[in-house]
């Protein structure tokens, strides 16, 4: 029972009194002056969060990178994150968009909000989430069509100017590799045990197979060494168009994206050893992961 803001719990020989506060002291839900509204199926929204959240920054000195840019324009949505070393970009098509602003709407949703949403959203295309965007706050209504199960999440928005990400996306490539996702992930996980802890890098070579004149057939060679552990080499069969290349990556950044790619094959597009690399699931134009290589000299 509850009396004078004290909750009493009794059972047999047990007796607990829990001090509380008046319900009048509880903060009111914020009033959101809506700039735009959209509806997304929960499976797509959950997948989107899982794909982009890996690239959010934890640098508290650059708060505008501590979340995801949620951009609505021309009845399309882009969700982008970056920590300046890598960038995740997801294009999604909402069920509907109510956006009275012709120039579009851009807001930055905090990392913690995205994390909480990913835990609550279902892997179900038939269940939807309504997103209402205000000036400084955003609201997510889970299960908006069922009042009994409806959950509302309110969150502040991060202030600041998100960087212009389009300028770092390469328009053409000298090399394109197609590799089995599971094979690449398994061997990258194995070789990560041999990287130097202070560098956490692995060297990747993509070369045509010896004696094979067909340009498409190639081999990825992963190399890592550590003065405390030893050295390791892994070889992975692949298909390649274009030039051979040797490039160095942060091992964790590669593993992060390989763990969330569900397609059988992964596409890697490269130019030079120090230029941005694009990684995408095979036959999926909606998700792009951009990674900066590591300078080794």
Give an overview in words:
The chain is mostly beta strands. The chain contains four helices and 20 strands. α1 crosses α2 and α3 packs antiparallel against α4. The termini are far apart. The radius of gyration is 24 Å and the shape is globular. The chain has two domains: 132 residues, DNA Polymerase III, subunit A, domain 2 (DNA Polymerase III, Chain A, domain 2), CATH 3.10.150.10; 121 residues, DNA Polymerase III, Chain A, domain 2. One of its GO terms (molecular function) is DNA binding. One of its GO terms (cellular component) is cytoplasm.
What attributes does this structure have?
globular; 297 residues; five-stranded antiparallel β-sheet; 4 helices; DNA Polymerase III, Chain A, domain 2; twelve-stranded antiparallel β-sheet; 14% helix; single chain; mainly beta
Question: What's the main sheet like?
Answer: 12 strands, antiparallel
Distance between the termini: 70 Å
Number of helices: 4
Helix vs. strand class: mainly beta
Strand order of the largest sheet: 9-5-6-7-20-19-18-13-16-15-14-17
CATH architecture title of the largest domain: Roll
Tally of strands: 20
As for the CATH topology of the largest domain, it is DNA Polymerase III, Chain A, domain 2
From N to C, what is the helix and strand string?
A: EEEEHEEEEEHEEEEHEEEEHEEE
CATH superfamily of the largest domain: DNA Polymerase III, subunit A, domain 2
Number of domains: 2
**Computed CA radius of gyration, to the nearest angstrom:** 24 Å
**Mean pLDDT over the residues:** 90
Quote the beta fraction: 35-45%
Residue share in helix:
10-25%
């Amino acid at each position: 029972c509850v009396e004078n803001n004290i909750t009493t719990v009794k059972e047999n020989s047990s007796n607990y009194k829990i001090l509380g506060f008046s319900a009048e002291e509880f903060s009111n839900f914020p009033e959101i002056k809506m700039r735009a509204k959209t509806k997304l199926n929960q499976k797509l929204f959950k997948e989107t969060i899982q794909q982009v959240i890996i690239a959010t920054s934890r640098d508290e000195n650059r708060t505008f990178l501590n979340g995801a840019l949620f951009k609505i324009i021309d009845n399309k949505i882009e969700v982008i994150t970056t920590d300046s070393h890598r960038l995740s970009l997801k294009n999604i098509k909402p069920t509907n968009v109510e956006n009275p602003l012709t120039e579009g709407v851009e807001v930055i949703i905090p990392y913690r909000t995205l994390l909480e949403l990913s835990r609550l959203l279902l892997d179900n295309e038939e269940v939807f989430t309504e997103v209402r965007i205000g000036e400084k706050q955003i609201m997510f209504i889970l299960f908006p069509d069922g009042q009994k199960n409806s959950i509302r999440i309110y969150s502040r928005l991060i202030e600041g100017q998100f960087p212009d990400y389009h300028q770092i996306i390469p328009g053409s490539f000298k090399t394109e590799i197609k590799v089995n996702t599971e094979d690449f992930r398994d061997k990258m996980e194995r070789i990560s045990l041999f990287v130097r802890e202070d560098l956490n890098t692995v060297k990747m070579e993509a070369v045509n197979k010896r004696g094979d004149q067909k340009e498409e057939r190639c081999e990825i060679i992963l190399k890592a060494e550590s003065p405390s552990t030893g050295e390791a080499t892994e070889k992975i069969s692949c298909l390649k168009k274009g030039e051979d290349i040797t490039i160095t990556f942060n091992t964790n950044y590669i593993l992060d994206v390989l763990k969330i790619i569900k397609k059988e094959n992964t596409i890697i597009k490269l130019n030079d050893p120090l230029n941005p690399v694009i990684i995408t699931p095979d036959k999926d134009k909606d998700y792009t992961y951009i990674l900066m290589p590591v300078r080794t000299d």
